Amino acid sequence: MIDRIRRVTGAVAAAAVLTFTAVGIPSAAHAQQSEGSTSAQAGAQEFSDAKLDAYVDAVVQVSQLVQKWQPKIQTAQQQQDKEKARSLQKEANAELVKAIQDAKGISLKEYKEISLAARQDKELYNQLNTMVQERRNGE
Predict the structure, then answer these.
(1) Residues of the signal sequence (predicted)?
(2) What is the phi/psi pair of residue 47, to 5°?
């Protein structure tokens, strides 16, 4: 289900829900990347603590939206209502993209770059993973 949202998000808005493992670090914008050097460059970039903190805030927001929309979309799919499922996915994607665009301290492009880098850099991924868990636990 989330995989479907990821594909649609990349196609529709180029920005919102590719979830890393169970932690839920979305790399929304990763799905929208163009093929080529963007991916290779993202892994080598360094990001400030402020950017990573803003990214984690956006990740938590997007994760909450995924939890909100996933059951609705899944129900439509289980009912074999493809049109309704697509409509819900489109609506969810728009909300996810808006959440990232409205995030303070990070642009959609930066969100994308950090997401790409985290997919390529295990150390960065682990750092973000820890930050997300701490944020969710209110630490």
Answers:
(1) 1-31
(2) -125, 140
For the chain, which residues make up each domain, given as ranges?
Answer: 2-30+46-136
Query: Is pTM beyond 0.70 here?
Result: no
* Residue in this structure with the two tokens 């805030």, named with its chain if needed: 57
Angle at 5 between CA 76 and CA 70, to 5 degrees: 50
Token pair, residue 79, equals: 């009912």
Q: Are 31 and 18 in contact (CB under 8 A)?
A: yes
Half-sphere exposure of 32 (CA within 13 A, CB side): 19
Nearest to 55 by CA among 16, 2, 14, 107: 107
pLDDT digits 0-9 by tens, 40-93 = 444 446 899 999 999 999 999 999 999 999 999 999 999 998 999 999 999 999
- Using CA atoms, how far residue 5 sits from 63, 118, 127, 136, in Å, is 12, 20, 25, 22
Question: Using an 8 Å Cβ cutoff, are 51 and 106 in contact?
Answer: yes
The whole-angstrom separation of Cα 65 and Cα 69 is: 6
Token look-up 């460059």 returns 41
At position 111, the amino acid (one-letter code) is Y
